[in-house]
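Bug #77: duplicate submission created two jobs. Keeping one. Sequence:
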Amino acid sequence: MARTHRTVTRKPSIALLHSETRSYRVPLFERLNKFYNITFYFMYGGGWSKQHPESKKWKYHDMRPLPMVGYAGDFSPGIVTQLFKPYDVIITSGLASFATHISFIIAKLTGKKLILWDETWEWPRTLAARIAKPYAKFIVKHADACLAAGTKARDFYISFGADPQKIFIANNSAVDMAKRSIDEKYVQQLRKKYGLEGKQVITYIGRIIKFKGLDFLLKAFVEIEKKNPNAFLFIAGPDAGWEEHCKELARKLGLKNYIFAGNAPHEHVQEYYSLSDVFVLPSRFLYEDNIVNDSWGLMVNEALSLGIPVVGTTAVAAAYDMIENGVSGYQVPQQNIPALAVAIEKSLANKPTGARKAFEHWNNYNTMFTAFKKAITLVMRK
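Kept job's structure:
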C-alpha cells in the first residue's frame, strides 16, 4: 500500500529592520508577529516599543546607534552579528539607511532573501547622494522583492531597475483617528483660546521644517485673507529649524488672522485636527537637501480619517493615492502659490465631502499586511 507524503510548510524565520516602533506601525507589526516567526530590530534604539503594550508579545531588540557621517541615527554596527543568525528573510526599510546597506551585503553572502520596504520616491541631488545612487540602484535591482508605500514609491523602484513583478504596494496606513471619540469640550476650549469662533479654519499640523513648505502656505494666505475675513490660519507643530523664518515671514506679509500654537499634545491631536475646515500640506521638493520632500505625509491619512478635506501638493506622495480633486480635497503643483490659494478657497466655499471615503479606500492594515505576505511568499518560493 502506497504511503501518502504530506508536505509540511515551515514558517519562515524573519528579521525586520526598522527605525522605531511608531504608533502607526503597531497594527502592522501585530499582524506580522501573529503570522510569522519574526524578530524586530529597531535601529534608532530609542526604546519606543515599551510605550505600546502589544510589544510585550514581540521578539525585538533596540539597537545601539553610533554617530557616523552619512547616516541619520541608524548606524548600529551591532546588527551585523544579528543578521548572521539563521533567518530565512531579512526585511529592511529605508533605501538610504545603514540597515539596508549592510543587510543587503549579508543577505547576498549568506543566501538569505532580502525584501526592501521603502517610501522613497525622489532621490536627492547632493554630492553624497550622487555617489551613493549607483549602489542604491544595485540594491533595488537585486533585492528579492520590494514593498512600496504607494504608487509613487512603486514607480521609483521601477525607475531604479526593479522587476515590476517583484513589487508589492503596502498601502501606507495610519491609525484611524475617528475610532476615538473627540473631546468636544477640549475642542471648544481651543476655539475660545485662539479666537476661532465663527472662523473658517485652515490648519497645518506637523513639523515646521523647510521641505514642508509652510512659507508657501503663508504667502497663499495673503490672498485668502483679503477675500475672506473669516478665514483663519492655524499652525501647530514642533519647530525643526524653520519656525522663526516663517514667523518673520508672516510679520512681513502683514498677516492678521493666524496663530503659531506650538506643538499639539499627542493625546489631543484629534482635537487639533477637529478645528479644521480644511487641512493643508504645502510641501516642496528640496533636492539640495538629503530630505527631498514628503516621502508620504501621514497627516493626510489622519485628516481624511476625520472627514477633513486635504489640500496637498505634488511633493506629497499620499496626495497621489488619497486625494481626488473636488472629492476628498485638491492636489496642486508644488510651490505654486496662486494654485494653492485657489484650492483652499474652493475647499472653504464648497467643502469636499469624500474625505472619509478616501481614507477608507486606501488606509487598510489588512491590505498592507497582505502585501508583506505576498512578498514573503514570493521570495520563499525561489
